Amino acid sequence: EAACDAFEHVANTLETIAVKES
Q1: Among residues 3, 4, 7, which one has the least CA distance to residue 15?
Q2: What are the pLDDT digits (tens) for 1-22?
Q3: CA distance 1 to 11
Q4: pTM for the whole thing?
Q5: Is the dihedral of CA 11, 16, 20, 22 positive or negative?
């Protein structure tokens, strides 16, 4: 559960950064 949450958080952060970089 914790690992899944951590992965989801990282994926969310990367997606946000990708949107900002665009």
Answers
A1: 7
A2: 899 999 999 999 999 999 999 8
A3: 15
A4: 0.54
A5: positive
Rounded-to-integer distance, Cα 9 and Cα 20, Å = 17
The CA distance from 2 to 22, in Å, is: 30
In angstroms, the CA 22 to CA 7 distance is 23
* Torsion sign, CA atoms 12, 6, 8, 2: negative
Separation between Cα atoms, residue 22 and residue 17, nearest integer Å:
9
